[in-house]
Amino acid sequence: MKKATFRSRIASFFCGIVKYITKIIKGVIIVSMKDSFQKAMDWMKEFSKTNPEQMKSFQNMMEAIEKEEGAALDKKTKELIAVALSIARNCEWCIAAHVKSALDAGATEEEILEAAWVAVLMGGGPALMHAGLVLEALKDLK
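Above: the chain's sequence. Below: its structure in token form.
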């Protein structure tokens, strides 16, 4: 009896995922990566006001890591890595920000999607669902 219950729960779970994905595809659930990107930028601005010392330190760290002068990796490569890590960490806002930055750094749609698939390889099904947000970001942020 327990096996049947477990199997029915698994089947129900996957049916739910399929229904959710179908709704996304049909546009019933709107995922606006432009909105996610803007929300992330708004939060950064707000934190800069409420916690200026912490945000300044964070920005200094970002600048040090993102600089190209004397770096082994160029900005585009770093942003492709950031796209993959954003998926692996399940961060919708990070996906939006880093897809935008990767595009701005000259990454092609194919390069961004390949980075997304590397994250899926390492992260399995949950990463695949978050890689779908990359598709939305590429549509919304071009």
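The two ends are 52 Å apart (CA to CA).
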